[in-house]
Design goal:
Distance between the termini: 100 Å
Strand order of the largest sheet: 2-1-3
Number of strands: 3
Number of helices: 18
Strand content: 5-15%
CATH superfamily of the largest domain: Type II secretion system (T2SS), domain F
Helix content: over 70%
CATH topology of the largest domain: Receptor-associated Protein
């Protein structure tokens, strides 16, 4: 017989929910009526394989951080109000607009109704609830402070969204300039240069090397632009697949940290994420080894992940955290010294919070400095390209007088 997940109310208006095996909905009503309960909502429970059948269409997507922040704060508020967790999940799912988040919350609610803990139910959806989120929920359930850890998760996601937005907004203008410049050069090479080339061919004049080079490039781009586009797409796909391998990911992240100027920014962002997450999970009462694993995974850089996991092995053997982190060579002295001070004073989470605020400001300043360098560099680059095209197009015109007299 199929299982039905129901919600009902008694004569006093108190709401309850559960799962009943029955032939149909009418039998569920009769069973509840015998218990003096009145059915208010019912849904047939599907098997785990079928219940997730609707997810593959959305499985490639992710929930925006802002939607996760709002959902977490709503869920924390409802839990704090004393509502059952299944009712909290149902209410939050009804208020969100993201299709994937709605499906996920409904599935989590069904799993909780059938006996799963909230932690286990969320762990089945790693694309929506990452390791940090699951660790905070697990700590909240174990300590009876779920509303506080949910609020902490919302704060962490909000900080991550703010950090991403700062970095993205700083590079919007340079990227737009580069795209426009590329479009203008492509237009000149495919429409303008061929016209000049036909005019020069009619005069049969000797063209300067710079002009012959430009005409040759224009001919190649005009006739074979699709090959360049396919080659670019192919290279990008190959790089993407290589980066998805463990060795490729490590080498890619090493390269990101060695880039001139951008390497420092990438390291600061990774360390900021690590300290921010570690502060949140330690404050929530997560054991240190689990906290290090979660914090490392949220850094976004495999080099930092391996450094933290190596340090975690020493911590497991009884060492402090600051010394093995310093030995990895991946963390600046300010990080290891403040962690050492936090360990000695017993205020590790407070020191980590201070580190996070420091690195957030430092990332903001570094991004501002980079944009101040990139904008004039792009202006010079675009000017050089335009000057090259203009010289190549107009230099033959200066010699047309001699050609006409001949």
């Amino acid at each position: 017989m199929p299982n039905y997940v129901y919600t009902a109310r008694d004569r006093n208006g108190m709401q309850s929910s559960g799962v009943i095996s029955a032939r149909d909905v009418q039998e569920v009503r009769e069973v509840l009526r015998n218990k003096e309960l009145f059915l208010t909502g019912i849904q047939q429970q599907t098997s785990p394989a079928r219940s997730r059948a609707g997810l593959p269409l959305l499985s490639g997507r992710r929930v925006p951080l802002n939607d996760m922040v709002v959902m977490s704060r709503q869920l924390a508020t409802l839990v704090r109000a004393g509502l059952p967790i299944v009712e909290c999940l149902h209410t939050v799912a009804a208020q969100t607009e993201n299709a994937l988040l709605i499906q996920t919350l409904q599935q989590v609610r069904m799993d909780v109704l059938t006996g799963s803990s909230l932690t286990d139910a969320m762990r089945r959806h790693p694309r929506v609830f990452n390791d940090l989120y699951v660790a905070l929920v697990q700590a909240g359930e174990a300590g009876g402070v779920l509303e506080e850890t949910l609020e902490t998760a919302a704060v962490q996601l909000d900080r991550e969204a703010e950090l991403r937005e700062k970095v993205k907004s700083a590079f919007v203008y340079p990227i737009l300039v580069l795209i426009v410049a590329t479009g203008v050069v492509f237009f000149l090479l495919t429409f303008i240069v061929p016209v000049f080339a036909r005019v020069y061919e009619q005069f049969r004049a000797d063209l300067p090397l710079i002009t012959r080079t430009l005409i040759a490039v224009s001919a190649v781009i005009s006739h074979y632009w699709w090959m360049f586009l396919l080659a670019l797409i192919g290279v990008m796909l190959l790089i993407q697949r290589y980066v998805q391998t463990p060795g490729g990911r490590l080498r890619y992240d090493q390269w990101k940290l060695r880039l001139p100027y951008f390497g420092r920014l990438n390291r600061k962002i990774a360390i900021s994420r690590f300290t921010q997450t570690l502060a949140a999970v330690t404050k929530a009462g997560v054991p240190i080894l689990r906290a290090l694993t979660v914090s490392a995974s949220t850094s976004g850089n495999q080099v930092i992940v391996e450094a933290v996991m190596k340090a975690a092995q020493y911590v497991k053997d009884g060492a402090t955290l600051s010394a093995p982190l310093e030995q990895t060579g991946q963390f600046p002295p300010i990080v290891t010294r403040m962690i050492a001070a936090g360990e000695q004073s017993g205020n590790l989470d407070e020191m980590l919070d201070q580190l996070t605020r420091f690195y957030h400001r430092d990332v903001e300043y570094t991004v501002a400095r980079l944009t101040r360098l990139i904008e004039p560099a792009l202006t010079i680059f675009v000017g050089v390209v335009v000057l090259f095209v203009l010289l190549a197009l107009y230099m033959p015109i200066f010699g047309f007088g001699n050609v006409i007299r001949k």
